[in-house]
């Protein structure tokens, strides 16, 4: 989480999205934990303060992790990974609402 974007053709947004996906996997798709850890990373920048940008990236990362689990049947053995499919995640808009209405 040093902020190195060289593996992403120096594209800060792509590197940030990759980090969000890794954080979603690590923290069981906890949007608040993803936000907290991203802010501490070397990829944090002022753009992250825009609510639409931040929520969009976190939502996309969580949906990517959920989709991979649904498709490949992947489950983390760590107790922190508690993602369960729910009917509230049927569309990206509903997923975003569900993700950001939950408590820390």
Shape: globular
* Overall mean pLDDT: 77
User: Strand pairing plus helix content: what structural class?
Assistant: mainly alpha
> What proportion of the residues is helical, as a percent range?
40-55%
**Strand residues, percent:** under 5%
Total of helices = 4
The biggest beta sheet is recorded as: none
How far from one another are the termini?
A: 22 Å
Task: Give me some keywords for this one.
104 residues; mainly alpha; 4 helices
Characterise this structure.
The structure is a single chain. The chain has helices at about 10-25, 30-40, 50-70, 90-100. The chain is mainly alpha-helical and about 100 residues long. The chain has one domain (about 5-100). The protein contains four helices and no strands.
Write the layout of secondary structure elements.
Layout: H1 12-26, H2 31-39, H3 51-72, H4 92-101
Helix pairs in contact: 1-2, 1-3, 3-4
